Amino acid sequence: MSLGIPIAIAKPLAVVMVGLPARGKTYIARKLARYLSWTGYRAEVFNVGNYRRERFGAKVPASFFDPTNTQGLDSRKKAAFLAMDDMLTWFRDGGEIGIYDATNSTQKRRAWVMKQCDEAGVDVLFVETLCDDATIIDANIRDTKLLAPDYQGIDPDQAVADFRARIAHYERAYEPIACEQTSFVKLINVGQRIEAQHVQGYIQGRITQFVMNLHITPRTIWLTRHGESTANMAGVVGTDMPLTSRGAAYAKSLATFIGEQLPQPGTIWTSTLQRAIQTAAPLGRTTHPLKVLDEIDAGICDGMTYAQIQEQMPGEFARRSADKLGYRYPRGESYEDVIARLDPLILELERQQNPVLVVSHNAILRVLYGYLSDAAREAVPHIDVPLHTVMSLTPRAYGCEVKTTVLDAAV
Ligand code: F6P
User: Which residue in 334, 338, 339, 352 sits closest to 222, CA to CA?
Assistant: First the structure.
């Protein structure tokens, strides 16, 4: 089966995180792995901290990270070696983009990483996050580190003090990427400034663009299908039919719901199909109709019911049932095509710091919801996205909070 990715990569790539603790490395690493796997690449995170915790226990004192503590140094080196070993084995088994998540805070360590990857025929792109904004660092410690296994059951203020001491140890030894002859992207103060060097080819460019758009400001994304349309009533796929009276009633309920949730104008995106535009109309706000949000193109099956497709084109019906993700309607699209089509929108969605409402369609929302909720690609075409329901998603440092609300559509 084709993975449906835009461009296959010629050589495996290690994305190597660099940065002091609490600079958002793990957040970026996870988001990036999620984005790349959703796009169709074999991507995985190798987090050195997890190897350290497994091998030497989660609860080590800050002095473990003192650069003059030879025993601590040795243990940390071992964890780094184990993670690297696993990543290289994974590459040999067909892994494409490995994300090596550690501080990699000295030039010596980075030279070692480069050597390991080079000998294994793996390209390297460093992603360094630098931050000197104390408010961002503090928020990061409280939002993520206090939830980590290292601080389970420990008083929050004591945990914060210990984590600051850990950072101070790293600061003494930290060498930002300077004149190293490597490919790198530096993100300064959560993307306020970006520096890049030797970013080569399609995939490194995509990664750079993706990480540039990440931020940690919590905001809500509402996803909803259009209200019921006459095509839904008739049970046909595709078309561009208007709302039924139930659909129009849902549009009014949605306007009330969003009016309560979103007092200030946020961003409202709809598809360009009339059932979506009509659903957003009672909101009385500026909306942006986007072609990219139009429903999956059913090609020659547009306007048919599933029963008609099964009867008149049994081969097509069987192929779609066997592989709903990869199956492409003749002269239409597959779910993989839709994923590729929505790729630019994902970057826009990541970039938004204000609430966003998306009024779109079944297949499109499966793909967007699947991305945001970390669903496996194969599961995406089967996600249940009912009519007359709003899904509220709030991306957080570790995962996405999801709430669904069924709205009244009675006439
Ligand atoms: O039935 C409504 C609809 O939006 C169709 O227009 C579209 O083809 C279909 O859902 C997508 O769902 P599935 O991939 O399950 O056929």
Answer: 352
Mutate which of 271, 296, 369 for ligand 1 pocket (most atoms within 8 A of beta carbon): 296
Residue whose CA lies nearest to ligand 1 atom number 14? 363
237 lines ligand 1 (CB under 6 A): yes
Catalytic residues: 101, 131, 226, 295
- Please write the tens of the pLDDT for every residue from 58-105: 777 788 888 788 888 888 899 999 999 999 999 999 999 999 999 999
* pLDDT score at 152: 80
Q: Is 98 left (phi over 0), alpha (psi -120 to 50) or beta?
A: beta
Q: What is the 3-state secondary structure (H, E, C) of 165-216?
A: HHHHHHHHHCCCCCCCCCEEEEEECCCCEEEEECCCHHHHHHHHHHHHCCCC
The neighbour count for residue 330, using CB atoms within 10 Å, is 10
pTM for the model: 0.90
Which residues of the chain, if any, have pLDDT below 50?
1-2
* Domains of the chain by start residue, with CATH: 13-212 (3.40.50.300), 221-406 (3.40.50.1240)
pLDDT at residue number 1: 42
Q: What is the DSSP string of 58-94?
A: S---GGGG-TT-HHHHHHHHHHHHHHHHHHHHHHHTT
Query: How many angstroms is it from 317 CA to the middle of ligand 1?
Result: 13
User: Between the CA atoms of 137, 142, 147 and 149, what dihedral angle is there, to the nearest 10 degrees?
Assistant: 60
Atom of ligand 1 nearest to the CA of 238: 6
Position 361: which residue type? H
User: What pLDDT score does 263 carry?
Assistant: 67
Task: For ligand 1, say whether the CB of 380 is within 6 Å of any of its atoms.
Answer: no
User: Quick one: DSSP state of residue 146?
Assistant: G
pLDDT of residue 54: 85
